[in-house]
Specification:
This is Penicillin-binding protein activator LpoB. This protein has 172 residues and is of the alpha/beta class. It has five helices and nine strands, in the order αββββαβααβββαβ. The chain has a single domain, classed as ABC-type transport auxiliary lipoprotein component (Rossmann fold, 3-Layer(aba) Sandwich). α2 packs across α5. The chain is globular, with a radius of gyration of 18 Å. The N and C termini lie far apart (52 Å).
Length: 172
């Protein structure tokens, strides 16, 4: 009976998250890294900006110093909501930056599930590209459903950390 209960518990816990994280090539931490706008496919406004901030902090903790594209300087709500204006400005900025690697990705989920407990649900894809060739060097995706009193950003920290564990970083 204990074994059945243990197996059911493990199956239940493993169903809460899913990750596809291949090992990356070896990246030098002292290279020039740039975080570009992420695509927000979730129903939560500004989820991409939240993920970019968390990603920047977690990369710094791993010894990678990044630069982030400049924010739009506008009060026009239509431009703020339209991701294409942000991407266009970020690409103009990137052309003037010395960069070795570009980090981008997408947010598929960033919300609380409806229901009594309202558990957080997070889904994120990260991608590292060569700034020179624009070839994708590494891509990983992960999703996680958190527990009742956990925050969405807390679940997001866990997903991003799991994804970044797949990056091989050479410290100098």
């Amino acid at each position: 009976m204990k074994r059945i209960l243990l197996a059911a518990s493990i199956a239940g816990l493993s169903a809460c998250s899913s990750y596809q994280v291949p090992d990356s090539p070896l990246f030098a931490a002292n290279s020039s890294w740039v975080i570009m706008p992420m695509a927000n496919h979730s129903n939560t406004p500004m989820a991409a900006e939240k993920v970019e901030k968390i990603l920047n902090a977690q990369l710094f903790a791993k010894g990678i110093s990044t630069r982030v594209y400049p924010e739009l300087n506008t009060n026009n709500l239509a431009i703020i909501i339209d991701d294409s204006a942000k991407r266009k400005q970020a690409n103009v900025w990137l052309a003037s930056q010395p960069a070795d690697y570009i980090i981008t990705g997408s947010i598929e989920e960033w919300h609380y599930k409806s229901g009594l407990d309202g558990e957080p649900a997070v889904g994120i894809t990260l991608e590292i590209k060569s700034a020179k060739s624009k070839i994708t060097l590494w891509r990983a995706t992960g999703s996680r459903g958190g527990w009742g009193r956990e925050s969405v950003s807390g679940a997001g920290h866990i997903v991003i950390d799991e994804l970044l564990d797949g990056i091989n970083i050479e410290q100098k």
